[in-house]
Amino acid sequence: LLKNGKVTTDTDTRHVPTFVVPAKTWLNGKTVIDLLVEAKLAKTRGEARRLIRGDGVRLNNVELTDELLSLDATHFPDNRAKLTVGKKRLIFVQLQA
């Protein structure tokens, strides 16, 4: 994240949007493509695929290469995940019980 020309750490996350999703729905076979589209980080499933193929998507600071990755509880430590698209688009995904 850039702030006044300087890189900031993840400790200043007050202004990062949080996308809340029901845990039951998201831990039963939804893919990272579904997450990108529903969180409005990609307009279409095709755009989401292109972002992943272009090495532009990270989940918890890990680059995603598998566009068919099914999400499970291991992707959401503490029921929360950081989803980054490119260098500037960042959201937190919060699982709701």
Would you kindly provide a written description of the structure presented here, covering whatever features stand out?
- It is built from 3 helices and 7 strands, in the order βββαααββββ.
- It is an alpha+beta fold and 97 residues long.
- The strands form 2 sheets. The chain has a 5-stranded mixed sheet.
- The chain is globular and about 30 Å long.
- The N terminus is likely disordered.
Short overview:
Helices cover 21% and strands 29% of the residues.
Q: Which strand order spans the largest sheet, edge to edge or round the barrel?
A: 3-7-6-4-5
* Major pleated sheet: 5 strands, mixed
Low-confidence spans = 1-10
The succession of helices and strands, N to C, reads EEEHHHEEEE
Q: Please, what is the oligomeric state? A: single chain
% residues in beta strands: 25-35%
Instruction: Please work out how many helical segments DSSP would assign.
Output: 3
Rounded to an integer in angstroms, the radius of gyration calculated over CA atoms is 13 Å
Class inferred from helices and paired strands: alpha+beta
User: Helix proportion of residues, in percent?
Assistant: 10-25%
